[in-house]
What does this fold into?
Amino acid sequence: MCEIGAVVLAAGRSSRFRAEGGQEVSKLVAEFGGKPLVRHAAEAALASRARPVVVVTGHAREAVEAALAGLPLLFAHNADFASGLASSLKVGVAALPAHVAGALVLLGDMPAIEAPLLDRLIGAFAARPLALAATPVHAGRRGNPVLLSRALFAALARLEGDEGARRLLREADPQRIVEVDVESGGVTLDIDTPGDLAAARNLRR
It folds into this structure.
């Protein structure tokens, strides 16, 4: 059986959100659908086959951890969160056990991701022994989350600044990337500003 861990990235500074009037210390603790925004991604990961589920904290660490209280998660703190996304990816992957075949990387500000999609990505990856990654595709556009093979972990360790999985996919052999077509636009819906949050709330209603 192909064992995959999950990494939920929840370390960012929410700079745009707060600059445009967001009142919360982090967008990830803003209310969405009756719960903190970040809790949607964490619960989706926990409802999937992925284990363990590691949450990478950074900015507003205490508030993010409080928003996830009661969930069977592992936490890994990125003290260097201000340097960008790459450092959080490294911390999250380093926290996974050595036996996992890959890491499913979720963004904490994407509330429309659900467990069945995560399991589809894991299944598609497992069915291709030489796959380097699996990614959802909606309307011709790649989205998130992305599943990265352990074979990419060395390249991931060399990322800097705000580089993330997208760069790894660009540089990988396209024949070894599994694309999973999905109907839901949730794989491209992330929350960067209070306006994004309000629009997502309206869509949910």
